[in-house]
Structures are given as structure tokens and as C-alpha cells.
Design a protein that fits this description.
283 residues; alpha+beta; Immunoglobulin-like; 5 helices; 37% strand; binds zinc ion
Amino acid sequence: MPRDNFSRRTITLLAERVGFLCSNPACGCHTVGPNRQAEKSTRIGKAAHITAAASGGPRFDVELTAGARAGITNGIWLCSNCADQIDKDVQAYSASLLHTWKANAELKMSQSIKAVYETNAGEPAHGPYLEADLVWRRSARMPGEFSDKNPGQLENGVYVVDVSGKPIIHWTLGWEMSLVIHNNSSYAAFNVSVELDTGGIETVERSTLPKVNHIQPFGQVKMTIKYMEKMESSHVEADERLARRIPDAFDNMVFKIYYFDEARKRHRTLARVAGQQILNDKA
Ligand SMILES: [Zn+2]
């Protein structure tokens, strides 16, 4: 049975489409670099077959024509280690998993060259670019009264609460976070101000930025954000809620960051909390 090998052109295309990085998301290593001999480069990458090039090989698909077997759709760029690994354990590395790796690696590379292009092409016109990050600093629970939801009984006319086990307590939960504003550009940002749209939550406290301020290129400023929440529960549930570094109540909260460039043109970044992360959108 003949092997349906990839053409040179297919091999080059597979490598280039992922920037010569291994497509295994757990690896992602470089597969090309300099050789000690000045006139040579070292390649450790392989164009691996998603379904085998010959009958009896890993994930061989009898349905494919010879052309499809040697076609670019059936190839994935991997480092030599990962290429060996996927062929030794075909149960763990199915064809559909490898297609997913390939699609994600190509998407990632496409986004990263787009970002380089946009930064290089667009920066002079766009000026400074601020992005915010919400960083957990500490959180704690402060106990209050026992809840009357605890079981109990009357003893000599006094209701005695049974607090063995996991008693239900009125807790105050508190978080302290830093809103770190990064200037991810080579342009200074002037008169930075932050407006907080809490969506009606009143127990958010924030420190203020100096009235006149600027963030130098690739510099940062920090603001402290404190938040309190009341709950009635056992300490176990309270700790579960505290385990979240960004409190649930912050979901969809928006930090509007305003700033000016050197030409006094105003810019704005909307930083929105989405679960345990913060997404930045420059307007
Ligand atoms: Zn690899």
C-alpha cells in the first residue's frame, strides 16, 4: 500500500499557517530556529497526518481518496515530540481533536498577526490605549448574629439555638481589589479619569485618582476597589462565595476610563467585568 505523502508546498503552508509553532495547545513550541552553522536553520516540526497516509496507520480513514489523504485538510503542524505522541496513542488523539487543535492554532496565529498589523499601522492615528485589569488583593468574612433559621428549642421560656454543625449566621463578606489601568501603547495618556457604572450596587467604594495625572507609555496606575455584601448562610457557603476573586455581583459592571492624548483629543476604554475576567473595548 503506497503512502499518500504531503507535497512540499502543503508542508510549507501547514507550517506557515501556524507561524511554525506546534499546534498542540498544551505545547505551542517553536519548531524552527537558528542552527550553530550560520548558513543553516534547525527545524523540529512535522506536517503530521490527521488520518494516516497509508492503510494500517494511525486513524486511517478508508473513505478518503488518495488526493484527500495527501491534501492540506488532512495535515496538522506539530513539533516532533507531539507528532510522535499523537501516533502512539490514537485513543487519546482522535481526528476530530486534531482538527480542533489545527483550527484553534490557525485562529490564534491569525489574531496575533492582525494585532501586530493594527498596532503598527494604526497607532499614530489612535494614540494612547489604556486597558484595565481587576486584581484581587484580599477578602474576608465577618460574623454577625445567629440566624433564627437554625434549629432550636425553648428552654425555661428562652429559645436556645442549636449551633453545633454548620450554624446559619448573618455574614458580612468583604473584598478588596485593585483596578490596575495599564497604558498599552507608546503614547502618554493625560488626565485619566474613571467613571464606575455599578448597575445599582451601593456598597462599592473606590479610591480616586489625582485630579491632574498622566500615565506614561507602558506605565500603570492603580485604584483600590472595596465591596461589601451581606448574606445569611453557613460558613461553608460564605467561603464558597469568597472563593471568587471577583464577586458575582460585579458581573457586567462597567468601568469607563477617559483620557486624552497629546493633541487633547479624548479617548475612552470601556472595561466590563465578565465573570472572573475583565474585557476591554476601546471606543
Ligand atoms: Zn509540540
